[in-house]
Amino acid sequence: MRIATRTIYHIVFAVLSLLWIYPFLWMLAASFKTQNEFFAKGLSLVPTNWDLSNFRRAWTNGNFEAYFLNSVIVAASVIVIVLVITSTCGYALGRYSFRGKGVILAVLGASIFVPLEFSIIPVFQLIKNLGLMNSRMGVILAESGGGHVLFVLLFASFFRQVPKELEEAATMDGCGFLRTYLSVVLPLSKPIIGSVVIMQFIWTWNSFLLPLVLTLSSPNLRTLAVGLYALRGENVVDWTGIAAGGTIALAPIIVIFLLLQRYFVDGIAGAVKG
Amino acid sequence: MFVMPNLVFFALFQGWPILANLHYAMLDWSGISTGAKFIGLDNYKELMQDPYFWKAYKHSFLFMFEAVPLLLLGGLVSAVLLNNPLMRLAKTYRTLLFIPVVTTASVIGIIMVYIWGSTGAVNYALLKLHLLDKPVNWLGDPHWAMFTVVMIYVWKNLGINMIYWLAGLQSIPRELYEAAKMDGAAPFKTFIHITVPLVAPVGLVILLLDVSGALKVFDMIKTMTDGGPFFATDVVSTYIYRYAFSSEIGLPRLGYASAAGIFFAFTIVLLAIAQAVIRGSFRSLGRRRGA
What we know:
The complex is a heterodimer.
Chain A lengths: L1 H30 L3 H6 L12 H9 L2 H32 L5 H10 L5 H14 L6 H9 L4 H12 L3 H9 L4 H9 L4 H17 L2 H6 L9 H11 L4 H35 L1
Helix pairs in contact in A: 1-14, 3-14, 4-7, 4-8, 4-11, 4-13, 6-7, 9-10, 11-14, 13-14
Chain B lengths: L3 H21 L2 E2 L8 E2 L3 H7 L2 H32 L7 H13 L2 H11 L5 H8 L16 H26 L3 H9 L4 H29 L3 H6 L11 H10 L8 H37 L1
């Protein structure tokens, strides 16, 4: 009986897991197939001869080289900006009490419910008025926008637990406020920084609407998420090329997730429990 | 001083947009700064008379009502089953179910167009199993498109629901389960009397996250169906996009699109207040009865 339930358990979850990763396996296989093989055996998961021409086509003709670079630059810059602004804000909120603190917390908390879709038009206009339309800087700033409530709260609750004596010792040794923060307090928060970096990386890498509308008239600035959509628009039947583009877009995020899974899951779990 | 940078980003990209939206919604405006004309509430009036808006509005809620229960229940069941540390491979299953969550929704959308297409794996499997006798054009058939979009959305987001529930489950003290076992409670009873009441507060947070996520779905619908076929999967976010950024229908109408966004956001806020009031009155009712 117990062996039977155990077997059913494993069969059910093995089938489910396969269904859950099948699209990725299919995409990976298709990206190595020649057009002919794809038409003959579009569903097989192991290509007969590993053909790299799809990747070459996507990378050069499909402009994925530029898209990849854009995705990397945008994600890296957004991560840096978000880390700076959320850790400082979290430090102030977690450590010090000052007038208006309650209001700030309440407003940031309420902002979770303002969906991007409904602020997209003003954000679009703002970037335009700043003269940053069709520039990478515009995408970066817009992607960094928002209240980042989750990250601020993660930092705030972490900094609240740092013993006061550490800062006092630093002040005694002649560290200024900024110096104390940078070289004493911030290095302690490495686990939080890890969570913030990977979560923000995933969000920015996957972001679609903002880069889509901010690069409508400058194809060279597209990120991967937008680039693949454009590729499909231009090339409805080139499924092996699309699969190669998709692999280029998804491989980094899946690899990074598998390597740093713990930080991500901890951050997410903190979000519901917090 | 230290809170300023974050507040500036917040104010510019979240606070200001709300106010700006209210203003834009009263303009007849194509986005070219000189052409704006103040027209008061005319955008809202037009919106109320547009059957396509109401269709998109209905679809947004339909999508939410179909996807959220599946996500909540599916997430809870898989979390409970995979929370067992004694089961080998439970961790591996968790990771595999979670992978779609971290991947790019717009890319997934495009890949799914093939997988659910007439020569894709879904039709192939269903034909082989004799559940179908001819391929169905899942995303291209107005009758099936909404169902398909919901299925794919649930597939992508089940993993995050599972992780949310796991976080809730793991905060329940083990001693409670041990005590229940000592008292000879059956697993199902333990689940009903210990697990359910203790994860309920977390469940409420998950419900909120799911509802707000489902109501703003955009990336996958845009890349899979673009609201089609024949507006069968058109939701408020794709409706807004069409009026604000797409060139299909002539000059963009930013004011009109803003009005649609505000109207939709307004109903969501009303719903949130309504449910808070209902919960509050239930709670006070319970307290009175308890006293």
